[in-house]
Amino acid sequence: MNKKTLSVIFTLALTIIINANILAAPSTSDELKQTQDKKKELQSNVQDLDKQIDDVIKKIDSNKNAMNKISQDIKKTQVKLEDAEKNSKAQEDLFKQRARAMYINGTGSYLQVVLTSDNLSDFISRVDLITKVIGYDNKVVAQLKEQRQAIENQKEALNNENNKLQALKTSNEVTLSKLSKDIKEQKSLLSKTTEKEKQLVAMETETNRTYKNGSLSRGMSSSASYSQVLSMQATAYAGDGITASGTPTKRDINGYSTIAVDPRVIPLGSRVYVEGYGYAIAEDIGGAIKGNIIDVFFYSESEAQSWGRRPVKVYILN
């Protein structure tokens, strides 16, 4: 084969390689642009969902506070009812004592008191006195009935309001659950899209034509008892009340205690083990509990203050 033939073959091969690169480049660039546009769309979706979740958390927190207040008001109303019952009983006893005194004095009724008058002046005086006594008794009875009815109405109104708040709590929980699921899906897609973007950038710049498996390391293998370990900051709070899940707050060192979480990180209802605290259930939320932060519950302020703020490992149980 002579030099001229070799030169022609070399020129043809070089032309084919150059043309192939020219044709391939726009394809990679277009795919990269589409991927980046998709990434921006997903980031926007995540931000929007994140804002919606913040709004729902605020509603749940406000709803929880309202339920706690109503719970206290219902207790106070019950005390008022018991006091009203005592007052009614005391007035009833007073009536009985008066009737007994009349019987002992030989007068069995108001009519007999009037009929035993000595003269007209005494008759008029006794009628006036009995009229005042009866009027007073009737007024007291009416006031007690009115007071009792007002308290009953107040208690019924509080119960109705509490039922509305319970329905709102359920609605908010359903909304939060759906939003949490949606943002999890969007973040998963965003993670995959970001990984794809890295691969396309590497291909386009030709600095790295190989790609690694996009699965994330879990840091450590899961055991039979837990599926995930999170590094978090733990604060503490105290005081009896009702959680965002509608359950009473509790601290049970031999069982499961209450903790507040960001439901985007740890879904409500999750059972966990908190390093240095023990087993717990994610039953509560709070406006300041965002991201990798949890709030553990204690019955006393001194215990909560003693806990302070500390880094902990949180194990998500199976």
Automatic annotation (TrEMBL):
The keyword Coiled coil applies. Pfam families: 3D, CC_PcsB. CDD domains: DPBB_YuiC-like (cd22786). InterPro entries: 3D_dom, PcsB_CC, Resuscitation_pf_RpfB, RlpA-like_sf. Residues 82-153 form the Peptidoglycan hydrolase PcsB coiled-coil domain. It comes from the Bacteria. One of its GO terms (cellular component) is outer membrane. GO terms for molecular function: hydrolase activity, hydrolyzing O-glycosyl compounds. Residues 25-94, 141-196 form a coiled coil. Transmembrane segments: none annotated. Residues 257-318 form the 3D domain. GO terms for biological process: peptidoglycan turnover. Residues 1-20 form the signal peptide. Gene3D superfamilies: 6.10.250.3150, RlpA-like domain (2.40.40.10). SUPFAM superfamilies: Barwin-like endoglucanases. The keyword Nuclease does not apply. Keywords: Coiled coil, Signal. This is 3D domain-containing protein. It comes from Clostridium aciditolerans. The lineage of its organism: Bacteria, Bacillati, Bacillota, Clostridia, Eubacteriales.
